[in-house]
Amino acid sequence: MSKKVLMRGSQAIGEAAVRAGCRFYAGYPITPQNELTEYMAEAMDGLNDGTFIQAESELAAINMVIGASMAGARAMTSSSSPGISLKQEGISFLAAQELPAVIVNTMRGGPGLGNIAPSQSDYFQATRGGGHGDYRTIVLAPASGQELADLTRTAFEYADKYRSPVLILGDGMMGQMMEPIVFPEPIDVRTFSPKSWILDGAKGRPSRIILSLLLNPPEQEDLNWRLARKYEIITREIPMSESYMTSDANMIVIAYGTAARIAKGAVKRVRELGLKVGLLRPITLWPFPNRPLKELSRHVREFLVFEMNMGQMIDDVKLALEGRGNVHFYGRPGGIISTPDEIAKTINSIYHRQHLEED
Amino acid sequence: MAKKIFQRPKYLKKAVFHYCPGCGHSILHRLVAEVLEELDIGERTIGIPPAGCAVLAYNYFDVDMGEAPHGRGAAVATGVKRTLPDRIVFSYQGDGDIAAIGTAETIHAANRGENITVIFVNNGCYGMTGGQMAPTTLIGQNSTTTPGGRDVKRDAAPIDLSEMLAIARGSVYIERTAISSPKNIRRTKRALTKAFKTQMAGLGFSLIEVLSPCPVNWKMSPVDAAKWIDDTMTQTFPLKVIKDEVGKLD
Amino acid sequence: MAKKEGLIVIDRELCKGCYLCIAACPNKLIIISDELNQMGYYPAEYTEADSRTGDRVCNGCATCALVCPDLAIEVYRE
Question: Could you report the predicted ipTM of this complex, rounded to two decimals?
Answer without folding.
Answer: 0.97
